[in-house]
């Protein structure tokens, strides 16, 4: 199973990769845990940004998420960006680091579409065997109608699933942090015409292994 490329993988390579991964199970056991409590033994990362206020911003953020805008970063991309946000759908996530393109596979675990005083829209995906990490990531848009604020949040738990990510873990952690910042900025740009520099809030924690 090839996961590293000198050049960005072609659509044919990506289609074969996704089809192969579609037949496989998750490479971690705590499937769905981003909806509850992340499991022990994983590094937990969070990123949160305020996108603006009002229903128009919320709808624009939903559309951006539906179009996988949070991955359209240049050094990170998704295939296929036409993949619907439905449970069971598989996508390939590409990331460029140290001169190589790293190919990863994820399957959507659950989706969120709630209306109320706090309206929520989003989804989570989990890693498949063709991924250099093991874990889960949730992408969530919230509109708090009491304050009228719309926010975008990423919550992830992960640990290395490849010898190179174990050996180069400091670089992996920098890339994960960079992804959180760049993803938040991409979503901000998608819903705001004015080029205002957003404030991005990030946190990291290690869920200790249960004794």
UniProtKB/TrEMBL annotation:
InterPro entries xref list: DUF1990 (IPR018960), UCP010260 (IPR014457)
DUF1990 domain mapped to chain residues: 27-185
Output this protein's name: DUF1990 domain-containing protein
Listed Pfam families = DUF1990
Upper classification of the organism: Bacteria, Pseudomonadati, Planctomycetota, Planctomycetia, Planctomycetales
Q: Which domain of life is it from?
A: Bacteria
């Amino acid at each position: 199973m090839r996961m590293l490329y000198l050049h960005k993988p072609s659509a044919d390579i990506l289609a074969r990769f996704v089809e192969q991964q579609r037949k496989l199970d998750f490479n971690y056991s705590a499937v769905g845990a981003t909806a509850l409590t992340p499991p022990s033994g994983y590094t937990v990362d969070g990123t949160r940004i305020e996108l603006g206020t009002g229903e128009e911003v919320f709808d624009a953020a939903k559309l951006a998420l539906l179009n996988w805008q949070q991955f359209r970063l240049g050094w990170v991309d998704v295939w296929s960006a036409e993949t619907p946000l439905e449970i069971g759908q598989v996508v390939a996530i590409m990331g460029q680091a140290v001169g190589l393109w790293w190919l990863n596979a994820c399957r959507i675990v659950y989706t969120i579409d709630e209306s109320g005083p706090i309206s929520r829209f989003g989804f989570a995906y989990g890693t498949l065997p063709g991924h250099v990490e093991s874990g889960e990531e949730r992408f969530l848009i919230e509109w708090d109608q009491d304050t009228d604020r719309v926010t975008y949040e990423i919550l992830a738990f992960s640990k290395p699933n490849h010898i190179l990510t174990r050996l180069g873990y400091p670089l992996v952690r920098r890339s994960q942090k960079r992804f959180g910042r760049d993803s938040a900025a991409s979503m901000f740009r998608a819903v705001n015409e004015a080029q205002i520099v957003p404030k991005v809030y990030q946190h990291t924690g290690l869920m200790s292994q249960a004794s």
